[in-house]
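Hey,

The postdoc asked me to send both predictions to you directly instead of through the lab channel. I've kept everything plain text so nothing gets mangled by the mail client. Protein one:
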Amino acid sequence: MRFWQKIFICTLLLFIVALNIASYILVTNNHRLNLQRERERVLNEYVVVRNSIQSEINYTGMELGLVFDIPKYVVQNALKNYALSYGEENVYFEVLELPEMNTLFSNFEAISELKERKELKNLTEGSRNDIIHQIGTGKYMFVSGLFDLDNKEYVFTYIRDITGIYTVRDQQVDFFLQLSLAISIAVAVIMIVITRWLTRSIKKLTNSTRIISRGIYNERVDVKSKDEIGELATNFNLMSEAVELNMLRFKQIAEEKQKFFENFTHEIKTPLTSVIGYADILRKAVNVDEKTMTMAANYIYSEGKRLESLSFKLMDLIMLQNEKPKLQPYNLMAVLKETEEILLPKLDMANIRLEMELIDITVDIEKDLFKTLVINLVDNAAKASKEGGRIRVSVRKDRLGRAVLEVRDWGRGIPQDELSKITAPFYMLDKARTRAEHGAGLGLSICGEIVNLHNAKMNITSEVGEGTCIEVTFWQSVFDAKND
């Protein structure tokens, strides 16, 4: 069952129940008020009629000269005449003789159908009992009280047909049932239109989810309402945007992994081919001069060192991606002095001068990884520099007080369109020269991973022929060593 159908059914049922309850209460209350008014009317009529009959009988007795011991026939004739005057008003009388309760007069033949007369019980002087009896399909109100005549007591019962009140109630019930049915049908039609209109946004959301499930991640919902459904649609669009971005990211990661494997395969294929080729020459050759053997051995050694460097670089890269180092505060000046001792021998061999511009500052780092970062950055700078060039390693504070590590060279530089690619694994700006130096294009990839592990930021600027500057900004708080 659809959501709009649930809303429609629940709302319609609630409306029907509420309407019928209200109608029942209205009809019941109206009937109660009518019955109360009719009771008051009958009670008043009882008093008036009883007194009038009593006066009529006394007057008739006086005319006949009967002051005491008025005969029964006089009473009966007076009652009969009085009853005739009410013949068309659905009013009846009954007079019973006490104490035997013999019927002196009655013009209501159906009274014999009553099995019990509760209104005749416990009557006292000045009291009156009233009750409603159902006789056949009719409703009658009985009012009984003591009737004194010629020092003799009778029971006088006034009877009025009140069936009309119940008929009106039944007519009102029928009317409200018909009205409820008509209103419910009208409300049902209106509710269908309203619920379909209110849930149109949910239908749009459903259609959009189907489209997204087919792989179309740029689908969005155009909902302009500001209610909960509008808020849901907004969040759905945000979710769709996040899904689209993640899918693009996953696609990019998949492409990068594919490219990584392709580059890795290509990188190991060349040295392996050389190693296998020269090893085969040494294996098959019988009369090989010393020069050829030396050349073959040099090639095998060179390509072996290249494979060794590649394996170490790959291992570093894999470990960095899985490692969560524990950062501790270290004085950068002291750590860079230790790193300088590692770098100087290789730079001296390449006739490259290393300049250090340091300040006394403490930063949270992982010491060994930080050294690896500096060594790789300086190594890349050395490869880009000419013989007799220089490299500057400096540490400073930016305007926010953050520590900034800067490695600058004045070498061949990097073209602007290549800057966004140089941190990708196996990227080589000058492939021939990089391979000749046993490089694999992984140095800056490792640097990028180390920078991320330190929650730092790396920025690279370069101009062709002018050199390259790499800045690493550490975002965590820094401390002056003098104030520690």
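Protein two:
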Amino acid sequence: MMEGLKSLTTIDILYAALMAFVATQLVLSFSRYLKLKTTYKSSDEQIKDTDKIMIIKKCIAMFPVETIYFRGKVFTKGMRVRITTFQQRVIEGEIIGKNEMDILCVMAGQHIIAHEIAKIEDIIEMPSSFQ
């Protein structure tokens, strides 16, 4: 083994050192690129969260009525409900509010849905997700 190392010339050693340096720089630049890419992704997500909060605030302003009366039942803002429309569409989410034109606003997952109360067949209160 020592004979193999003794047979290396100075040029061979410099070449090996240069290749090790280049390989290290490639790995470091690739890791910086990945880190930078994830940083931009997280700031995009922060912007989306900020936009979502602004949209929710606008919906709260557009639907200020906090108490909804539907067929003898009382529902309030923040309550989790399951709504069935006359078209048999099911909407599950949290009540944001109601406006003067009898339109109910519900946050369902990533969507905010507004629907006329007159076109709703049934509203059922769901258990809170905190339980």
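Summary for protein two, as requested: The mean pLDDT is 85.

Thanks,
C.
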